[in-house]
Specification:
The complex is a heterodimer of chains A (257) and B (317).
Chain A: H1 12-23, E1 31-34, H2 37-48, E2 62-64, E3 77-80, H3 83-92, E4 95-99, E5 103-104, E6 110-111, E7 114-115, E8 123-124, H4 131-137, E9 140-144, H5 164-170, H6 172-175, E10 180-185, E11 188-191, E12 200-204, H7 210-215, E13 228-229, H8 235-245, H9 250-254
Helix pairs in contact in A: 1-2, 2-8
Chain B: E1 13-14, E2 20-21, H1 24-29, H2 38-43, E3 50-53, H3 63-70, E4 77-81, H4 85-92, E5 96-101, H5 113-120, E6 125-128, H6 131-142, E7 147-150, H7 158-161, E8 166-169, E9 177-182, E10 186-196, E11 202-203, H8 212-217, E12 219-229, H9 234-238, E13 253-256, H10 274-284, H11 287-298, H12 302-316
Parallel strand pairs in B: 3-4, 3-10, 4-5, 5-6, 10-12, 12-13
Antiparallel strand pairs in B: 1-2, 7-9, 8-9, 10-11
The chains are: A alpha/beta (257), B alpha/beta (317).
InterPro entries (chain A): CoA_trans_fam_I (IPR004165), NagB/RpiA_transferase-like (IPR037171)
Family (chain A): Belongs to the 3-oxoacid CoA-transferase subunit B family.
Protein name (chain A): CoA-transferase
Amino acid sequence: MTLPATPPGATRAEYCVVACAEAWRGDGEVLASPMGTVPALGARLAKLTFAPGLLLTDGEALLMGDVPALGARPEVTEGWLPYRRHLTMVLGGRRHVMMGASQIDRFGNQNISCVGDWHRPARQLIGVRGAPANTLNHPVSYWIPKHARRVFVARVDMVSGVGYDRAAAAGPSATRFHELRRVVSNLGVFDFATPDRSMRLVSAHPGVTPRQIREATAFDLRVPDDPDVTRAPTPAELHLIRDVLDPTGLREREVPS
Amino acid sequence: MTDAMGAPGTPDTRDTAGTARRTDAQEKTDPLDKTMTPEEIVGRLESGMTLGIGGWGSRRKPMALVRALLRSPVTDLTVVAYGGPDVGLLAAAGKIRTLVTAFVTLDSIPLEPHFRAARERGGIDLVELDEAMFLQGLTAAAQRLPFLPVRAGPGSDVLRVNPGLRTVTSPYEDGEELVAVPALRLDAALVHLNRADHRGNGQYLGPDPYFDDLFCEAADAAYVSCERLVAPGEPARHAAPQTLLVSRHSVTGVTQTPKGAHFTSCAPDYGRDEPFQKAYATAAADPAAWAAFHRRFLSGDEEDYHLAVRAWHKEQR
């Protein structure tokens, strides 16, 4: 089937910004921690519109009291969040992070540590960072700017962020606060609202076919026959994205049209 | 600046290496004087030690002390750090046997090329922990506890690659099973702060203390380098008392190393030297380029390093 093309004016990157923003809808006063350009725009957009309670850092130790453009310094500081308090906040659960993933599998296990055998990796990446604690303590979403079979894999090489199957196997203290909210890629939006908690397609971005998504995914993804189309940015959201939050168009570099 | 640059009475006379020397008066009157040179500090370290390094990623790393360590014969280290170029440089020099970390990054450049190369050739034993686990381990060490529990690890491969990690069951009615992170006790710690006095009271003036106080408290011997040594009492005169991060009871030695965090950030004294970090990362990704970089910047002493960096910046204009 063919889905309607991108409405004039809204680029794929702008659909992705809105899809990321939607991850934080209803979150209240929690720290939104976006990793990547499009998630950073999404979090700021959410805060300026339907999720005003979100807390955002300046990328270091300060909580911004305003919502500046990407790369601009905030003019208002509303709080202090050095790493020691950041880590305490993780363990206290008042946070929703959107992390990246070098690999992610069907149940949402994520890898940012290394590719290949951990003992002598073919490619060393950044390390597990806070992913093991994040996934066991507060809501986690993922952003994958290039949906491909080498990212959406059957099995990740080093489980950093914990998926639904592994959390269940690890027991009640692992599942107690475990929640993977959504996965956003340049092709669509996904969640785990299935009986076995495996990933399903929620909506495809305009112009993307379910077949295209299946072919770019190396595991058996649940795809409804007639998936929704990712919601379009409203004119007000487009204005905020283009004129307020990202006037230099950094989003188009992360998701080229 | 938030402090009094060149305040009168500052016991700050420098030798040619830019290192503060105690004044004669102090030497006679203060038995708590802990000033040393970077070389004296490194002289206290031994091969095989477990060494904690403060800062975070490419932020406020004690790089002058790391460079002094590079010039020393000390090797076979277990390094415990939220890793940045400190880890990269020590790994490139073959001085790390075991690394305890949650990540190694240059922040504005996500991957540290030397760390990457060392791992990909199997040149480092890695103890890969989650960031919060690492914090619990340091805290346990500072509190002389065998471990502290944390809700992190189960379900992830951190438990697979650290088969020695144990869990502990809550003795209360919840009965939760948590990971017991063993204390990350350190033989020595190196941290870099904005100001310190000669007794080892250290002050940070940037937005984030990182975990430098914990590193000092978790170590049998902690060494503080600072941008500027000032008179006791000076730090609290010009900034809020909570900037007094490191207390002298947890410090063995203190040294003045201006631009001693370079090329990492040391706010508000200076930001990260991004062009130089980029040059470092580019060179580090290629053995021949690295040899040239090493020859140019790291073959001399600390003063030579800063002169070479200054000359390099001039060329870039």
